[in-house]
Amino acid sequence: MRSFALAAGVVLTLVPLFAQQPAALETLRVHVVHGLTGNPLPDADVLLRDLSFERAVPEPVSTDAQGNVEFQVKPGGYALSADAPGVGTVSYGELDNLVSLVLQLPPGETSKLVTLAIFPRATVSGIVRDELGEPVHRASIGLLRAAWSDGGIHFAGGTTAETDDKGFYKIFNVRAGSYSVCAQAQVSQVPVIGVADFSLASVPRFYEPSCSPAPEPDLSSLQAVHWGEQVSVNFTLQSAPAIDVRGRLRNATDSPNLTLKLTHVQTWFQQTAAVARIASDGQTFVFHGVTPGKYQLDAMATMLQKDGGLRTEMAVHLPVDVRGASAPELDVALEPAPTMELAYDEAEPRLAERVVGVSLHAAGSPTTFSEPRPSGGKQIFDYRLTAGTYWLHHYLGKGACITGVKLGGQDVFRQPIHISSGMRERLVLSVSSACGKIEGRVVDGGRPVPRARVVILLSGSPEDPGFCPINYTGDNGEFEISGIAPGRYLLWAWKDDGSGSVPGPASLAALEPLATVVDLTAGTTSTPSVALLDLEGKTR
Fold it and tell me: Is the pTM of this model over 0.70?
């Protein structure tokens, strides 16, 4: 028997023909029901895809009058989904972050029953008017969902819609959850009603963005949306004068590639960044006609490299709040941009090839991160990297784990990484195969809990959490976390009640006494039972 290693850790094994035995077929029964009533859903389209890619994608099969459908399949992994007209869609193991699970059919299991509950999606609609009561055409509507990640609750994603000529909008297929609904006009300028006086210089006015329930996205004030609900949210946009944002640069270099951009920080509103006009002295700048809102100012001086890439020499990133009829002059001090080389210390040859991804995430801002890029045969962190505190996020293939991290010789393994202006250091990751594994189960009163969220604290502390990857339990409450360095770890588990109203605990600090503690040594597997927390942070 011969084996060949392929990409992504797949192993192709050549077996003599006489040793191959046809796999026995198994019976998979799928029962589709309405998520709110529990009633069976007839004529729902059920799609089963073989993830071994041995067969082409089949056509969906409709459920009978009792909401049932049956498949004869080989053992293996499958993607299962159902679509009921007028109700909605669902995937097997669909989770609150839209991740689905793989349906595993192990050999020797003659039959399996899977129930798919389809919850009716909600809609959010309304009318956007201006301060005169007129409809605002082509206003952009954003739906920001509260989600849990890396130790706290943050806004994630952004479903968008656009108003018609009557100012009406409607967002379909909305999952239950807690949201901030925001509106932003896209018209170039607010029309002025009155007598025109051409002797006076006109000041253009633009609409200010607005959100609901709070005027700006606020995690403490959210709109609850329940399954199947039709939610109405109307907006009245107020106008404000557009202004010129001026400023002065300090520490400006002679780099010909000096750019200043002002970008709207709202993730739901796609707006082209404004580029500053820099004076001939290279020190003063102005952004003309900036509309009200919150922005980030990005100032960068770059140099062209031999490999054709750009290296950031000086940089600064500042928040800018544009409100009222005027804005104070900005004092922008460029700082030497930090640059770090990513390197590996391998305990065994070729282990670094199993590193799937590495990134540095700004503390307190999980959506702000820097990834290494190739430059001169090296991997360099420089893009979007400024002075501050970061956490290392890493993803590895099977059989490898990160057992150490050093920045310039200083041990920062499982600790915050502090980066200063102009820092030039090597970030060295120690990669080893001497790893541990967790094969646990989430229980509630001794009973296994499927589809529970399992969080492990890989770096930081409950008071100051760093990298907290999320796993989900299978049908029998089981979960697996592999590729973990030896050490002590804390785990928590909770499950959404289906309403999406509470995505998770606001802080892990209060939950430290309720954590499941796991001590891992190299080459061992821990099998803990993790008690399910309720949404108030108590074990059940």
Answer: yes
